[in-house]
Amino acid sequence: MIKPKGFTLIELMMIIAIIGILISLALPAYNNHFKRAKFTEVVLASNALQRAIEVCFYTKETLDNCDSFTKVGIKKSDYTTPNFIANIEISNSSGTFTLTSTASSEASKSNSGDTYIMLANVNSNQLLWELSSASTCISEGTC
Question: Rounded to the nearest 5 degrees, what angle is found at the Cα of 91, between the Cα atoms of 137 and 60?
């Protein structure tokens, strides 16, 4: 008598169930990684703007002369053109110089868009940047 070759229906169903469980575990991690990769575009645009502000600061010797896109000598549209950047702002209020970048909903976990806020400090005629704790990308895990 010839022994049948192949898998039984129960064995195939078990394999499909195991694959389904593995996919359900891997998909959220993949989506998180995908959002973080898109948010990198926001960070890179902010870094480019920081370098432009630094050049302005070192040539004009004060941050008050570099607190808008026109004073820096660049266009805002150059930094908001990428797909995953909703808005980017320069502000200088009450002695605090901030650069705020907002991600689009595609690049953030929240629908309102994660923010990436950099603070500028002048120390011994050097411009130093630090990530603000008010950045929502920290709590969302995208930056």
Answer: 125
From residue 35, give the alpha-carbon distance in Å to each of 41, 46, 78, 111: 11, 17, 22, 12
- Which structural domains are found in the chain, ordered by start? 9-140 (3.30.700)
Contact 56, 99 (CB under 8 A): no
Residue 143: what pLDDT? Answer: 78
- pLDDT tens-digit profile of 43-88? 999 999 999 999 999 898 888 888 888 988 888 888 887 788 888 9
Residue 71, both tokens: 């004073």
Three-state SS string over the chain comes to CCCCCCCCHHHHHHHHHHHHHHHHHHHHHHHHHHHHHHHHHHHHHHHHHHHHHHHHHHHHCCHHHHCCHHHHCCCCHHHHCCCCEEEEEEEEECCEEEEEEEECHHHCCCCCCCEEEEEEEEECCEEEEEECCCCHHHHHCCC
Q: What is the pLDDT of residue 129?
A: 92
Within 10 Å of residue 51's Cβ, how many Cβ atoms?
10
